[in-house]
């Protein structure tokens, strides 16, 4: 039975994750025991590098799927993050169907795509090479982010791209592209989010979203999102610390 992240995503399982931005093995080790289904490793906005994320993947092991956001839609980044053993890639700022097709090409081995063949952690450093290259196209998830008004305008074409396994809405960047940075509850921002979601649902494509706080994530869960990235490692730590200080200074 296939229990890969991509298989569960396509089945419509509820997948709860959080963003990992700190290159701390201890933090990932702790969070991996909390019951998350997946980690959203962020190479776009964090200070982490590929080597550090590989260490975090090794620490999490099979306890939590590892999906890595590449810094940009560039072939070299796909090679690096997939070769260290990512269960999927998240591609930021995908604003057109061609950009989505490019992400798929970079993620898949021929004949589907043009991912080059290396020998690294994903391949068991060579010991599971044939097994990996024969199954990677079926197991690796390709998620594109809709986080700009141009993505909203082109969403009907983006969701039809063969090989895209899901769309993750980036509400904060989307609000900024509309000139309303951070105003994720604004009516225009909400309407854009709903347009993205409706386009995904029309073709049966999984749609995910980021919720910065517990309260916002609870609201998104109640709205029926099955792929949810809730808070970040730093937010979880900061919130717990502030709550402790506030309660003990009363």
Amount of beta strand: 15-25%
Query: How many separate helices?
Result: 12
The secondary-structure element order is HEHEHEHEHHEHHEHHEHEH
Q: What is Rg? A: 18 Å
The CATH topology is TIM Barrel
> How many structural domains?
1
Summarize model confidence as the mean pLDDT.
97
Shape: globular
Main beta sheet, described?
8 strands, parallel, barrel
Task: Work out the helicity level.
Answer: 40-55%
The CATH superfamily turns out to be Phosphoenolpyruvate-binding domains
CATH architecture, by name, is Alpha-Beta Barrel
Spatial strand arrangement across the major sheet:
1-2-3-4-5-6-7-8
Derived structural class: alpha/beta
* Low-pLDDT stretches: none
Query: How many β strands by DSSP?
Result: 8
Molecular structure report:
The protein is of the alpha/beta class and 250 residues long. It has a single domain, classed as Phosphoenolpyruvate-binding domains (TIM Barrel, Alpha-Beta Barrel), CATH 3.20.20. Helix content is 46%, strand content 16%. Strands 1-2-3-4-5-6-7-8 form an eight-stranded parallel β-barrel, surrounded by eight helices. α4 links the parallel β3 and β4 (88-91). α2 runs parallel beside α3.
């Amino acid at each position: 039975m296939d229990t890969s992240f991509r298989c569960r995503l396509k089945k419509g399982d509820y997948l709860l994750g959080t963003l990992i931005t700190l290159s701390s093995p201890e933090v990932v080790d702790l969070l991996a025991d909390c019951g998350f289904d997946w980690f959203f490793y962020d190479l776009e906005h964090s200070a982490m590098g590929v080597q550090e994320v590989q260490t975090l993947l090794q620490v999490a092991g099979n306890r939590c799927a590892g999906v890595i956001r590449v810094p940009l839609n560039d072939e070299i980044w796909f090679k690096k993050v997939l070769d260290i053993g990512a269960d999927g890639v998240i591609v930021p700022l995908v604003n057109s169907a061609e950009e989505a097709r490019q992400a798929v090409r970079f993620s898949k081995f021929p004949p589907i795509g043009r991912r080059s063949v290396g020998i690294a952690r994903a391949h068991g450093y060579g010991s599971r090479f044939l097994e990996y290259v024969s199954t990677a196209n079926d197991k690796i998830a390709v998620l594109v982010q809709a986080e700009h008004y141009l993505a909203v305008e082109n969403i009907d074409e983006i969701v039809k791209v063969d090989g895209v396994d899901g769309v993750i809405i980036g509400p904060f960047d989307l609000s900024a592209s509309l000139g309303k940075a951070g105003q994720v509850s604004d009516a225009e921002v909400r309407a854009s989010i709903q347009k993205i979601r409706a386009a995904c649902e029309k073709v049966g494509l999984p749609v995910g979203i980021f919720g910065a706080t517990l309260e916002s994530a609870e609201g998104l869960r109640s709205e029926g999102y099955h792929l949810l990235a809730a808070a970040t490692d730093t937010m979880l730590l900061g919130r717990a610390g502030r709550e402790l200080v506030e309660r003990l200074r009363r």
